[in-house]
Amino acid sequence: MPSTISLRPPPTTGPLQADFTPPTIDWLSGTWHLTHSTLSMWKSNRNATVNYTIIPAPNVQDAPIKLDDTTSYQPLTSSKFKSIGGIDTARGTDTSVWDWRGKGWLTIATTHWEVLGYGDVPGEAGGPGQWLVTYFTPTRFTNAGISVFSRMKEGNPEAVVREILESLGGIENEAVKKLAGEIFEVLRN
Asked: In angstroms, how far is the first alpha carbon of the chain from the final one?
């Protein structure tokens, strides 16, 4: 059966994919459950989520699109949650290409992240499910990597995950292909 999931290489590493439509800001906003990643910090943590909240623009016509970005997670050995806060700023009007800057003591940390693909899928309970795949550049504290998200805590259906991973491995970008081979499931319980 041919894959219905199509992912693009990171736009900053090559030519733009002409048939890619960025997600709307409303579609991207809300809570996402991290299900798979290449970032090693997720091997010692669980129940990771990212919440994107639109930051209202001031009354300036050309104000950049911004999101408040809060990542929450639990260490494997603790019941307490930790969080990392930041601000995402879209590159122009493209809501698939973002620059992140940490808040508080993390204001020294910056990264760039891009949407490689996204979509709606039928949920296991018959309701709508959504998936999101992102690529991020290295920071002072982390390597470049790939993350896969789901709106559902239990994650995306197995067939969707399989298609995402196959599509990642087929991207014509050596760095992405290497990362695709390093991806692991993030514990959710």
From this structure: 32
List beta partners, residue 76.
Answer: none
In the chain, the percentage of residues whose pLDDT exceeds 70 is 90
Dist CA 8 CA 17 (whole Å): 7
Taken as a whole, the chain contains a residue count of 189
d(CA 145, CA 133): 11
Q: In whole angstroms, give the CA distance from residue 17 to residue 13.
A: 11
Smallest CA-to-CA distance from 144 within 173, 165, 113, 118 is with: 113
Specify the pTM: 0.91
Structure tokens at 30: 């809300």
Alpha-helix residue ranges (DSSP H) falling in 68-111: none
Residue 87 exposed, middle or buried by CB count within 10 Å (0-12, 13-18, 19+): middle
